[in-house]
Amino acid sequence: MTADQLREFARRQPFAPFTIHMNDGSRLKVSGPDVLFVPTPWKFNAILSLGQDRFTIIYLRNIAHISARGAWPKTSGRKRRNGPPDDDT
Predict the structure, then answer these.
(1) Is 21 exposed, middle or buried (0-12, 13-18, 19+ CB in 10 A)?
(2) Distance (Å, whole) CA 21 – CA 35
(3) 54 Cβ partners below 8 Å, 6+ apart?
């Protein structure tokens, strides 16, 4: 998971809550766009506000996957390479 992908999830319009599943099996629920902070210069970490003056720092390489409803957000990250063209001749 890249910082840009995580930012795209947080910026979806309309926002849809999602869950971050960590490699250790823990789950972090993101209930709104204002609880997840991924500052632009950061590439490897994010901060999730848990409420009541609590927060957690997420090391992005420890994210196993994200679960959410709706379409995958459009990202500006890497583009998939196409394989070699088929030779129909």
Answers:
(1) middle
(2) 16
(3) none
Q: How many domains does the chain have?
A: 1
CB 9 within 8 A of CB 67: no
Residue by residue, pLDDT tens for the chain (89 residues) are: 888 989 888 888 888 899 999 999 999 999 998 999 998 888 889 999 998 899 999 999 999 999 988 666 565 555 555 555 555 54
The domain that holds 62 is classified in CATH as 2.30.30.100
In a domain, 40, yes or no: yes
Q: Tell me which residue range forms the domain holding 25.
A: 3-68
Distance between CA atoms of residues 74 and 70, nearest Å: 12
